[in-house]
């Protein structure tokens, strides 16, 4: 054992110093942050520090300056029974206790990161806990997760199994998190943490971000600020039920536990089996919430979002335009009109499938992924031919984890459904929807086959919108044994991941969107397999401002699908100008979800110009740094945000007027993220059309002026808006 530790120690010394082990110090660092753990073989692992970067020579200063916490790094239930544990198990003999000491520490270089593994072993039972810390070199994220290996002779049951535990010195700590519901996802909520326990959790079983999100920020210096103060960010890379707990039960600590929600999910770990928890991505910034968000955006684009460094196409989705009424002529017309506006990709949404039971509404056909011949006599080939004719790409909607009781799939495989066999199942959408049992490998093969079949038959398919519109009701699996029914929530998501792994191994270039009743799947458990997620079924520009502001806390612009839709808006019935609808959708991955033939000629011209404009600023929005300036939650008459290219040579500034009064006072809006020493030419873009649909003229005096970055940030600019719901967008180019 000693040798193991020694050899690990030696191999570390040969590595470049991102992680350093000296004496009992284990220092894990990213470019701007560090985590310090303490412990040697035979000792209890202790957590000392997480925050600003610490060079190895400064470790004594951390300790001397009383920044070292000296808490247990991963508290377990047993010997210590009074505090909340990260891990609680029952051994085969009924004993419920754990007492862990360090067995070995090792480090290895992995792609773009360094992985530190600390193996802990129980003093009495051959039960092993491995804590993993993966420190990235291309973003300020340390991923933390744990693994449990049962080397006992019989099964051990896991009752609590957090991915990670983080103690934080107690102060005026504020929690920022997302919450909401269908059509109002990702609303940002901020609150001072007070004594007691606060839990963010989900138990939908399928969609874990329709309401909340498995992510959080902790502002350590009082009320959260966008630009200043120390902030810790956390995001759990999991698509299933989660639980993030903030425990202030003593006067000096906030204790954070994050992992799978263990409710109704106790896990029976067989001898020799290892259980791996999802990663908690932790980041830290002293540039406020904005700093934490930019760090998550880099983390996503540099590896945690599929093809994260690619810019996304501008698409038209058929849903709000025609709903279930798809047919060859209609799709052809939409493609033609969209192509004429400069669009790049057309996505046929729901309504295209079902042979015996054609999908005319939401009451049937999920599971029967064959073309509805009456609607689309020329098949997918006909649609691909239309797309080719108009020079755009083509994509298709599926909901492959689901089934309707009115479907051929249900008739063939009633045992593939999640249900309790001795009860009538409760149905979901359309009164007939049910969830497939992804714990069953045969079901996994089927779901993989849905995508594989489409791609084999139609290799020119460019894009798939993958939906999931039901909660995991009727909890019960025909596949899992009776003593392991409590594994279903977890096995469903393991199954989903297996399927997605197989799809990505075979189709790495296929573009996929994660949708789940709107924004129900915005999480880092799934984003490694998807290019983007659908932000919300609510496409109202005003509500989208708040939803996307929330989503942008943790996810980058090129992951947030955001569409311009009809006036009146179908969800809120609100009417706002087309310009505002574009100016909001352009802050994410721009798309449209509208019937083009219902648009006026002027609207089509405006849309065509806006699409051309977006193409030119797309790299700044999708790959640049985001700075949120005035929050739409602050109940001010306007809100604002901007994007700056990594080299600070280009920027795009968005501002929106939310209320309108005569002689209204509008303060100067201060920009951020620019190079103070550079001069920027400020040009208003996306201006309303002028007379006879000619290009409009800016009403802003700053238009075409050259101003220093320093002045734009310190003094701000005066924005001259039009009437209610008007918006102004400036492009900035360094001279
Ligand atoms: C869900 C999605 C929508 C649309 C419909 C189709 O509600 O969120 O975008 O695809 O399903 O039925």
Put simply, the count of helices is: 13
Return the CATH architecture of the domain at 20-288: Distorted Sandwich
Oligomer: single chain
Mean of pLDDT:
96
Largest sheet: 10 strands, antiparallel
Query: What would the CATH topology of the domain at 20-288 be?
Result: Beta-galactosidase, Chain A, domain 5
Helix content: 10-25%
CATH H-level homologous superfamily name of the domain at 20-288: alpha-galactosidase from lactobacil brevis
Structural class by helix and strand composition: alpha+beta
Which ions and ligands are bound to the chains? alpha-D-galactopyranose
Shape: globular
Terminal-residue CA separation? 62 Å
> Which runs of at least 5 residues are low in confidence (pLDDT < 50)?
1-17
Q: Tell me the fraction of residues in β-strands, as a range.
A: 25-35%
Task: Give me a quick take on this structure.
This protein has about 725 residues and is an alpha+beta fold.
Descriptive account of the structure:
This protein starts with a helix and ends with a strand. The chain has 13 helices and 37 strands. Strands 7, 8, 9, 10, 12, 13, 15, 16, 20 and 21 form a 10-stranded antiparallel sheet that branches. The chain has an 8-stranded parallel β-barrel with strand order 22-23-24-27-28-29-30-31, surrounded by 5 helices. Helix 10 links the parallel strand 29 and strand 30 (560-565). Helix 5 packs parallel to helix 6, helix 8 runs parallel beside helix 9 (488-506) and helix 10 packs parallel to helix 11. It is α+β, with helices and mostly antiparallel strands and 735 residues long. Among the domains are: 20-288, Distorted Sandwich (Beta-galactosidase, Chain A, domain 5); 627-734, Immunoglobulin-like, CATH 2.60.40.1180. Mean pLDDT is 96; it is low at 1-17. The structure holds alpha-D-galactopyranose. The site of alpha-D-galactopyranose has 11 residues, from loops.
